[in-house]
């Protein structure tokens, strides 16, 4: 059994790959690269104290919409079957509404996309519990806790120094340490940063009417973007991308007051909404982060360390799983004479991810800009565009196929 080891007990740890990060993307990368035959050291901070039993029994405010790329990767690693499927909701339809009195609309469904499921909604806790269980029994994975304070690289290896004086040596360091990536900063990789001046306000509700596996999204203009994602049973998860001032107001209100606000959007389809956990309302800032590179000598970035996009399409996590799948593929297919930290090998990984990442950045950023402008002529044009796209089945199928990661 693979048990976490405190960094204080280790002076030098050697492995093929050192992954810095403790989120779902870091853990998935550790499992996938280990199963590809590489030895892995996973470095993360000390685990937080366990949540109270009452909190653990409730629904996470943070949920993900995982596409087919993520599903395939997690299935190949035997993680998908380890999820608590009573807490996973398949999405069979997606309905997008424009804004204003002549609101446009766009709808997708699994039947039209020639699949059984468009995407799957699952909680952060459910995913991480399944990954943690897999890591406890993973071969070739050492889990180390500690804080990295230094990164040195030469022609043969990289060395991560920890605050207790111990060090982790590897042929390749993978930065999976989030939007404020320490690894990225150590490599002097520049980035483009822009705040959307919005925060995502999240919470969970019971709905009076069944959602039938449909996800709903409303582009409201001045009030941001409201999304209600299906949870198992008659329950939904809210992601409200709200302008800063409105977000402040929402955070000052009770969950029931937020539910009352949502009635103007959701009542016709979902009926009255009731907070599942009245105290559980969270928010996080929305920004666009575009690092100028996904690699550096003996370093590869994945997940939010490599790109942060607006959540309106729900694909930030899916981009990260795409990174993991591609990194595993690139390293596994390298020539025998090339090491895993070879510059040419890492350049192939970066090239392979460039198009998918750029397309998602441009799409989400463009839509966020388009729908945040509350000008009547522009509102007419964007609603017309939604209606037109809804009437073009071939283009719709191509868009939904790309979104599903198929």
CATH architecture of the largest domain: 3-Layer(bba) Sandwich
**Content-based structural category:** alpha/beta
Q: CATH superfamily of the largest domain, called what?
A: FAD/NAD(P)-binding domain
- Helix amount: 25-40%
Q: What does the radius of gyration come to?
A: 22 Å
Mean pLDDT: 88
Number of helices: 11
CATH class category label of the largest domain: Alpha Beta
Whole-number total of structural domains:
2
Q: What summary fits the major beta sheet?
A: 9 strands, mixed
**Proportion of β residues?**
25-35%
Low-confidence stretches: none
Structure explained in plain terms:
The chain is α/β, with parallel strands linked by helices. The protein has two domains: 5-51 and 127-192 and 287-365, 3-Layer(bba) Sandwich (FAD/NAD(P)-binding domain), CATH 3.50.50; 65-122 and 194-286 and 370-404, 2-Layer Sandwich (D-Amino Acid Oxidase, Chain A, domain 2), CATH 3.30.9. Helices cover 35% and strands 30% of the residues. Strands 1, 2, 3, 9, 10, 11, 12, 19 and 20 form a nine-stranded mixed sheet that branches. A hairpin with a 4-residue loop joins β11 (158-162) and β12 (167-175). α1 (24-35) packs parallel to α8. The longest helix has 30 residues, at 343-372. The radius of gyration is 22 Å and the shape is globular. The chain starts with a strand and ends with a helix. The mean pLDDT is 88.
């Amino acid at each position: 059994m693979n048990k976490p080891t405190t960094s204080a007990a280790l002076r030098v740890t050697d492995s093929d790959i050192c992954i810095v990060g403790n989120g779902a993307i870091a853990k998935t990368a550790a499992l996938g690269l280990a199963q590809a035959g590489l030895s892995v050291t996973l470095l993360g901070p000390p685990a937080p104290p366990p949540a109270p039993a009452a909190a653990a029994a409730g629904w996470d405010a943070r949920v993900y919409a995982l596409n087919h790329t993520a599903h395939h990767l997690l299935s190949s690693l035997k993680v998908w079957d380890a999820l608590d499927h009573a807490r996973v909701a398949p999405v069979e339809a997606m309905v997008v509404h424009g804004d204003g009195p002549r609101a446009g609309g766009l709808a997708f469904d699994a039947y039209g996309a020639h699949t059984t499921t468009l995407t799957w909604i699952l909680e952060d806790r459910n995913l991480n519990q399944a990954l943690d269980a897999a890591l406890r029994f993973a071969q070739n994975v050492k889990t180390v806790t500690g804080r990295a304070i230094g990164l040195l690289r030469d022609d043969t290896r990289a060395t991560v120094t920890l605050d207790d004086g111990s060090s982790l040596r590897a042929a390749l360091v993978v930065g999976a340490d989030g939007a404020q990536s320490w690894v990225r900063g150590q490599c002097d990789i520049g980035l483009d940063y822009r705040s959307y001046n919005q925060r995502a306000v999240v919470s969970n509700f019971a709905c009076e009417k069944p959602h039938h596996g449909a996800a709903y999204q409303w582009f409201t203009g001045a009030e941001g973007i409201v999304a209600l994602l299906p949870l198992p049973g008659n329950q939904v998860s809210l992601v409200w991308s709200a302008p800063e001032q409105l977000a402040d107001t929402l955070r000052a209100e009770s969950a029931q007051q937020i539910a009352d606000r949502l009635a103007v959007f959701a009542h016709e389809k979902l009926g009255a909404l009731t907070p599942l956990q009245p105290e559980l309302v969270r928010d996080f800032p929305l920004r666009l982060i575009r690092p100028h590179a996904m690699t550096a000598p003996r370093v590869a970035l994945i997940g939010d360390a490599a790109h942060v996009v607006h959540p309106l399409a729900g694909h930030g996590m899916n981009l990260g799983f795409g990174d993991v799948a591609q990194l595993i593929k690139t390293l596994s297919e390298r020539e025998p004479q090339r090491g895993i930290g070879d510059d040419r090998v890492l350049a192939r990984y970066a090239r392979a991810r460039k198009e998918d990442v750029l397309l998602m950045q441009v799409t989400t950023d463009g839509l966020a800009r388009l729908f945040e402008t509350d000008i009547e002529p522009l509102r007419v044009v964007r609603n017309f565009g939604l209606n037109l796209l809804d009437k073009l089945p071939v283009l719709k199928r191509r868009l939904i196929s790309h979104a599903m990661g198929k």
